[in-house]
Amino acid sequence: MKKIIVFLLLFSAINLHAQQWMQGIDKQKKTKGEVSFYDIQKAFNKYWEGKDIKKKSVIKGKGYKPFKRWEAFMIPRVYPSGILPAGKTWDAIQKKKKLKVYTKAQANWTHLGPDDVPLDNYNDPSGAGRINCVAYHPTDANIIYTGSPSGGFWKSTNGGADWATTTDELASIGISDIVVHPENPSTIFVATGDGDAGDTYSIGVLKSTDGGANWESAGLDWNTNNYVRIRRLLINPDNADTLIAATNAGIYRTADGGSNWSNVQSGHYKDLEFEPGNPEVVYAARYGSSNAKTYKSTDGGVSFTEITPAALDIDDVYRLELAVTPANSSYIYALYCLSSDNGFHSLWQSTDNGANWATVTTSADINLLGWDTDGSDDGGQGWYDLTLAVSPSEADEVYVGGVNLWKTTDAGTTWNLNGHWYGGGGAPYVHADHHYLGYSPSGVLFNGNDGGLYKTSNGGTLWTDISDGLHILQIDRMGISQSNDYVSLVGNQDNGTMKGTSTSWTQIYGGDGCECIVDFTDADVVYASYIRGDIKRSTTGGSGWVTIKPSGADDGAWHTPYIMDYNDNRTLYAGYSDVYKTTDRGDNWTKISTDLTGGDNLNQMAVAPSNSDYLYVTTGTGMWKTSDGGDNWSTVDLTDIGSSYVTYIAISYSNPENIWISVSGYSDGNKVFYSSNSGTDWTNFSTGLPNVPTNCIVYQKESNDLLYVGTDIGVYYREATMTEWADYGQGLPNVVISELEIQYSAEKLRAGSRGRGLWESGIVESSANVPLVSSATTSTDGSKIEVTFTKEMKDPTGKHAEFSVNNGATIAPDAAVLKSGDAYTIVLDLPSNILFGETVTVSYTEGSVEATNDEKLASFTDNLARRPQALTVANLRLLSQKK
User: Fold this and answer.
1) Listed range (166-170, 305-309, 591-595) with the worst mean pLDDT
2) Could you give the dihedral angle defined by the CA atoms of residues 218, 223, 224 and 228, in that order, rounded to the nearest 10 degrees?
3) At 449, is the secondary structure helix, strand, or coil?
4) Can you tell me the distance from the alpha carbon of 173 to that of 192, in angstroms, rounded to the nearest whole number?
5) Are 174 and 201 in contact (CB under 8 A)?
6) Which of 726, 732, 719 is nearest to 761 (CA)?
7) Is the separation of the CB atoms in 715 and 107 below 8 Å?
8) Cα–Cα distance between 139 and 512 in angstroms, integer?
9) Percent of the chain whose pLDDT exceeds 90
């Protein structure tokens, strides 16, 4: 098998986003593949200029929110070039696997939740996270496979009652499609990455020969600069060595099970379908401006011919999905979204394998991709969520998925709402934004959406959510209680703000969940927020919400920062383009800066635990500070950190001028910086960190400057005694860590991940608390060894056997005692003296010796102790002469 060359998934304009604003990008740049993030961002902003984006009705279902989510994720990663470099994440994970694990501290990460789909305050299900695809065992209806864009491959052996994943160690845990060998179902292929929104990077096609337990490359051999991603994968039901992949670099085909792949058709493709009963016929859906065309192959995918409906105006459409049915193998349906606003354009039908086409529904009839229950609105998210299925037994029964689900039983003449995002219009509740519709071999219709996985056995009269056990939540922000160690809040992409307790998880606020806080004195006082700084407060643990956004503030960043003062739980600070402060939990706010950023929105802020007058804020590219509570502000010079984007700020608990910042991007060796003077000077503090974005940093109080960072591939830690960062990811998936917080009473570090939910590990035992050896010396006569520690020690009498020296001397019973007048030093009496000039080592095997703070002395070896030379008369004379 050829060695796969792995690549990073680029977000390139043409290949990731087909929104209407892409029409504003220079065509020459598109052709040359020179479109950067900033080109896309500029086109987006220009398109929405003048539109009232504060109204939900204006942006709902129009692609605004999915783009802004993607923008917020990408801004720090591509700064300042606007280009996401290829291969860096893969390289970092391979290097991480090869490095020897630092053994001083080992993490013990476990998944904290949510395990099952949380209910909301009305007792209705919320969401588990996004699903891209579903696949099925050919003969066992209980075995189902599903793929998440950043949560990996999941398998159920009991019809969806329970789920397990096997891809946490992969370099990419995004899955866009899955196919199963028709005769040997233990062989499974997956297309990695996120084909709809670019949430994760792709490492090509992988193969398992043991039912998904282990994975290896399936051979695609792309150059690392090609930025290829895959959305659809087919396996020939008659010849399983033949696989076909739809990618943004064309259609790829292998006839030998993946040993060799060839590009058989150029262009960007989103969908592929076999003609039922005849895999020699393959249909393909191309993607993009003036390119959303349909193709057909009659030689098993070796070559393709265009069969786009002649009456279709190709300039009006951007994306299409195809569907076929064994009820009539001559039928093909093609679903198109508009290029102008990503709403519904039309549904076409061919009854003669693509030779002729007829429109069965158009946008003049209904908008099948919008939000409204009657389809009367405009726009949609066809670039992001578009899916189509036909009943295997009724060729006129068609299902369309966009924001909602629609169904026709007369081939498109009439439509009925089949599933709605809040259960409106008489339809059952099904979570919004649909990415998959497909039938299992047993005739059950499955649906994958932004909230999880659903199924129906009665045509959608009842949809059943089978997402319990899928740990795929995409957490963007989190907040934890210090008064109740079980309470955690998480703000999630498209799945609201959720609250976890010792017994359950609940969605306490809807929409896109952003920053959230739990009052450190009262776990019933909680704060949640919606996009752009819409801050809410509840005093009942998550109900009865009150809006507390500062009245004078404009819209903030997508994830607007706000924090609670460590010394006063009623005082909060919020960052928009200026800084606001409240001393009454948000009832009233005062602006404590004036035109601080020049109009740019802040994305992070921190207040010093030891002195609340010290406040640091950043936009990512600029940073400011105050040391007098906001009366005066000054710019923090970031010259020393180079072209890096600041993602988080941590402050020492004892010194308000000792600060650390994490930075994003792919500049090797530039991940964390430290300042001992409030940012006047910076020292690079990055040694040991992988070359991936560093997203957050947290300081552990009462420690020896112990810090944790969350990166795109896990968690690392470092304290003052260490010269480099160490991996602290044992048991944690290779997943983006969006935020870290410490729960002190439980001594737990919690990590919000973007795709695998909330995780927890014990904290590192800091050298600030643990007794360490500071010196080991002998007495002048060589009869004793004195070991001095960093902590006051308890009386070690009777614990002599836990110490040893390497010169063969045995420490006698009751010969280990505290030094008189010095509780930091333990004296070991030896039965025979150490010789003049002899160097010995003293060691300790962990046992019962403790410091007065009840911290046990850890094992140590080879601490040197040397008896000084005897002072002769000549020596004394020599010393006297030196004086």
Assistant:
1) 166-170
2) -70
3) strand
4) 7
5) yes
6) 732
7) yes
8) 39
9) 73
Three-state DSSP state, 364: coil
Taken in order 803, 808, 812, 817, the sign of the CA dihedral is negative
Supply the DSSP symbol for 821.
T
213 pLDDT tier (thresholds 50, 70, 90): very high
- 349: closest CA among 403, 410, 290? 410
Which range (116-125, 190-199, 261-270, 659-668) has the least confidence?
190-199
* pTM as predicted: 0.86
pLDDT digits (tens, 9 = 90+) for 229-285: 899 999 999 999 999 999 988 999 999 999 999 999 999 999 999 999 999 999 999
**Cα separation of 281 and 322, whole Å?**
14
Q: In degrees rounded to 5, what are phi and psi of residue 446?
A: -110, 150
- CA torsion sign for 202, 203, 209, 210 is negative
Cα separation, 634 vs 651, whole angstroms: 17
Model pLDDT, residue 11:
38
557: three-class secondary structure by DSSP: coil
Q: Sort 502 into a burial class: Cβ within 10 Å, 0-12 / 13-18 / 19+.
A: exposed
Question: Domain locations in the chain?
Answer: 13-86, 475-762, 773-866
Question: Which fold would CATH assign to domain 475-762?
Answer: Methylamine Dehydrogenase; Chain H (2.130.10)
Look at residue 862 in the predicted model and tell me its pLDDT: 60
* Phi, psi at 16, each rounded to 5°: -105, -45
How does 664-702 read in b/e, with b if 16+ C-beta sit within 10 Å? Answer: bbbbeebbbbbbeebbeebeebbebbbbbbbbbbbbbee
Greatest extent of the chain over all pairs of C-alpha atoms, in Å: 115
* Cβ-Cβ contacts under 8 Å for 190 (sequence gap 6 or more): 147, 153, 175, 177, 178, 205, 206, 208, 215, 233
Nearest to 808 by CA among 787, 768, 835: 835
> Span 146-162, mean pLDDT?
97
When the candidates are 2.160.10.10, 2.70.70.10, 3.30.200.20, 2.60.40.1220, the CATH number that belongs to 773-866 is 2.60.40.1220
